[in-house]
Amino acid sequence: MGKIKGKNSRGPYKQYNLLNNSKKIPVRTRYDWKKKHLARQLNQVSHDDKSLSSKLINSVQIEISDMCVNNNDSESLMNISDDNRVDDKIFEDCPDSAPRDTINDIQNESFPTNHDALNTSQIIDKTIPPTYKKEILKSQLINNLLVMAIKWRRNTTYAVAQDILNLYAIEDIYDGKAYKKVMTSDDMISINFNVDGAPIFESSNTSAYPVLCTLNELSPSDRKNHIMMSSIWFGNGKPKNMNAYLTPFVNEAKELLKEGLTYTFKGQTYAKKVIILIGICDSVARPLVQCTKQFNGEYGCGLCLHPGKSIAKGRGFARVYPVVNGEFFGEGLRSHEQTLIHAEAKTKEDKKGIKRKSALCDIPNYDIVKNLDVDWMHCVALGVSRQFANLWFDSTNSNKKFYFGDIIDQFDALILSLSPTSDFTRIPKGLKDRVHMKTHEWVVFLLAYSLPVMKMCFPIKFVKHWALLVDGISILTKKSIMKSELVYADQCLKEFIREVESLYGEKYLSFNVHLLAHLAESVENWGPLFTHSAFIYEDFNQLIENSVNSPNGVSIQICDSFRLKCTIDRLYNLCQNDLTPQQKKFFDGLRNKNSKPASTLVLRNCKVLGKSKIVTKLPQDQRRALQRLDIKLDSTYTIYKYRRCIINQEIITSKIYKREKKRTNYTVLLKNGQIFEIKCFVGLKNNNDVESYLIGNYYSSKKESFLKNRRLDQLISLNDKLHTISAISSKMVAQKVMIIKMNDDQLIAYVHLCNSELLN
Could you tell me the superkingdom of the organism this chain comes from (predicted)? Predict the structure, then answer.
């Protein structure tokens, strides 16, 4: 595997043979340590394969048409007309070569780019109206990918083409603009740190402020399982001098960047330099670390120069952040250099909310503004979602036009009637009990439950406004975000902020609402929101709270508990291959890990759970369904039937499995985008070939969106199930979905956009 090193290059690169010509394509791997290969090489497809054909070109054209938001004349803006659009029939007579004129036409309309980013200073034409510049930049990305697909169409499968299309997608922290700028060498690793208060005793104001660290070059699941505790502070309230508390951490960070560290893996020694990257804090801890005013003070936003506005609220005053003359950021965004100048200023007016220089500024290349980013867990889940739920249902707002407390029983009944998949760690909870709702419950309420239920209960203007927030956050938490989607999400969130004043009032433009305007830039700099959120540290904070058994020597108890945890983890890693099932179960209990259910039968793409039954004959409708897949059952087949299995590391059940009362795990999204309800599972063994199949019914999809003029990709409108029994291979399953029944008999399928991080 070769690597191409450039200013912002981030390998690895993989070499492919395209029409006997060697080409190097950047592999869309998420993790450098895990050389994750593409599913198929391009030269494995026969010359007469047409699997790319209209599928790829149509998907690219759909992407282009979807990108120009609120613009009916998108094709003229992107200079792509029907005359020069690629026609798949062109290649039928001459499959070995694509017409040069067609490729040149598209290349002429595409802007030059490298594999890292578009050079925006070169591609914006002065004649283009300012409001259309972003839309044109987005479209050129797809144009260039379309050129690649046309050139390689003869030897490109659809799966590989999707990987090519995702080259420019933002999928992890490695795709962030700020990450690429800082991580200039493969001999560097980066650390995120978290500073957040954890209350220890309910009867006192004492709390612990640990500094927790995670390594970005691990996979997302491993990041959560390998959290390091650098230091801990314990006392009343919060640290009065955060600079003094962070000084040892800063000194060690400087040493790790200068001297680095060495380690041995499989007999080979490696040397790495360590850089401190993102500080993840809530809106209370962030100003302590950044040495700025808190959000209720003038210039209280550490990311921009918005002075805020003090207004009367209740019996006191509150600071709000209104949009003034179309400006969301007041006097503009802050910069690191500007912040240092403000820290040295003598007068209050010149300081712009900066109290003093932060200790973190002593870390080389650490940007005190960009590297202390918004935490969406506190901003959105515990902030905006909870704020608006209180506005709707708190009795103190009973005289307001947005008060819906009189229908809260109906609202809660609809939520409680939902049957989620087991990806949701908790069953639905009504908003009457919202004071006890956990962080993940607020996330699920926002992304999954809120819009369908609101559409059945609330006036449409409130539904449309809330849809702006749901649509924007759903995109920013996806596993793969295109640049066009990033711009669309930014527009949604800013429109949500604008409309808060007209629908609810200026005094509800809180600091959390203001922070929504910063989220799109956060994703552009550091990847999807789940890569730099406090969710990853929540379980560890719970571990800290549970490790204290006495009010004496709290810090020592926490440190001893952490050392014990590290020792158990190391011991498990050393002997995990030699453990009996009983010993492994005991270790899982010590490590707070849930044991995975044991499979009784392993089929291709599927592990059977529970008892499987060998049958000699299938019902006629199921046999016909298999025949439509060209499977003719005869005496050479052994037929297994079962009710539960594991597919793609998810437990999926059939409809005949009755032990689950409050969950529905038998409806799935297929890789072709269709929704399928599973009636039963069938395993077929023929000689040494073992395949698993799903028997059930397709749902017919509606062409209309859940809400007009909104994308809401996670909410798929459905008609009823088809009556015909169908069979599909288990390898077609993408993930489980939740079916929501609306008042008007409309069906909605909710697709988890990032279930591995958000819901578990």
Answer: Eukaryota
The pLDDT value given to residue 744: 72
What residues form DSSP beta bridges with 229?
212
The residues with which 694 forms a beta bridge, in sequence order, are 681, 728
For the CA atoms of 707, 713, 715, 718, the dihedral, rounded to the nearest 10 degrees, stands at: 90
Within 10 Å of residue 36's Cβ, how many Cβ atoms?
Answer: 13
Statement: residue 519 has pLDDT above 50? yes
430 CB-side CA count, 13 A: 14
Q: Provide the pLDDT confidence category of residue 595 given band limits of 50, 70 and 90.
A: low
The model's pLDDT over 456-490, given as tens digits with 9 standing for 90+, comes to 999 999 999 999 999 999 999 988 888 889 999 99
SS3 at position 734: strand
Q: Please, are residues 14 and 24 in contact by the beta-carbon 8 Å criterion?
A: yes
Percent of the chain with pLDDT over 70: 76
8 Å CB contact between 143 and 491: no
Q: Residue 314 and residue 140: Cα distance in Å, rounded? A: 51
Are the beta carbons of 32 and 217 closer than 8 angstroms?
yes
Give the three-state DSSP class for 639.
Answer: strand
Q: Which structure tokens are listed for 280?
A: 């993840």
pLDDT over threshold 50, residue 9: no
Q: What's the per-residue H, E or C state across 540-551?
A: HHHHHHHCCCCC
Cα–Cα dist 484/137, whole Å: 9
Region label for 611, one of left (φ > 0), alpha (ψ between -120 and 50) or beta (otherwise) = beta
77 pLDDT above the threshold of 90: no
Residue 58, pLDDT score? 46
249: Cβ–Cβ under 8 A, 6 or more apart, which residues? Answer: 193, 211, 230, 231
Cβ–Cβ under 8 Å, residues 440 and 426 = yes
Distance CA 11, CA 27 (A): 8
Question: What's the confidence (pLDDT) of residue 292?
Answer: 93
Q: Are 639 and 682 in contact (CB under 8 A)?
A: yes
Residues 6+ apart with CB under 8 A from 573: none
Nearest-Å Rg of the Cα atoms of the chain is 28
CB 718 within 8 Å of CB 701: yes
pLDDT at residue 62, rounded to an integer: 46
- Give this prediction's pTM: 0.78
207 near 180, Cβ under 8 Å? no
Nearest by Cα to 421 from 653, 742, 673: 653
Provide the strand spans (E) within 654-746.
667-670, 675-686, 689-701, 715-721, 726-729, 733-741
